[in-house]
Amino acid sequence: MSSPSVRRVMPIIRSEALEESRDFYGLLGFEEVMNHGWIMTLASPSTPAAQISVMTSDKTAPVTPDASIEVDDVDAAYAAMRESGAEIVHPLQDEEWGVRRFFVRDPNGRVINVLSHR
């Protein structure tokens, strides 16, 4: 089985201060590219894959992830993680905002949101 290809890695900051965070990271050159009210993503205009998200809490999952990793084949990533025995924190599912994702716990206890856009 071949490994999925990584497209983007993004830290997630848990916070209730979305607007303040947008203003703060804006001072470093980030611009808002997505805002669902509970998660906001900021990106660099010159390097769009350089992103950071700020999240109050996850809308459909029991925990807030620490980071997101976008891959080209989330189903292959899910199969690889299950085969390895890694702890799946949130099952593979399609979300209404256009991603297919699952959460897995890394060896450091961090929760990683692994996703592909549909």
Describe the 3D structure:
With 118 residues, the protein is of the alpha+beta class. It has a single domain (6-117), classed as 2,3-Dihydroxybiphenyl 1,2-Dioxygenase, domain 1 (Roll). It is built from 2 helices and 8 strands, in the order E-H-E-E-E-E-H-E-E-E. The protein has helices at residues 18-26, 74-84, and strands at 6-14, 31-35, 39-43, 51-55, 67-71, 88-94, 99-105, 111-117. An 8-stranded mixed beta sheet has the order 2-3-4-1-5-8-7-6, with helices on one face. Strand 7 (99-105) and strand 8 (111-117) form a beta hairpin. The chain is globular. The chain starts with 5 loop residues before the first strand and ends with a strand.
Secondary-structure arrangement, i.e. CATH architecture: Roll
Going across the major beta sheet, what is the strand order? 2-3-4-1-5-8-7-6
* Content-based structural category: alpha+beta
Low-pLDDT sequence parts: none
- Determine the strand fraction and express it as a percent band: 35-45%
CATH superfamily: 2,3-Dihydroxybiphenyl 1,2-Dioxygenase, domain 1
Count of separate structural domains: 1
N-to-C SSE series? EHEEEEHEEE
First-to-last CA distance: 22 Å
What is the mean pLDDT?
Answer: 95
Oligomer: single chain
Fold-level CATH name: 2,3-Dihydroxybiphenyl 1,2-Dioxygenase, domain 1
Helix content: 10-25%
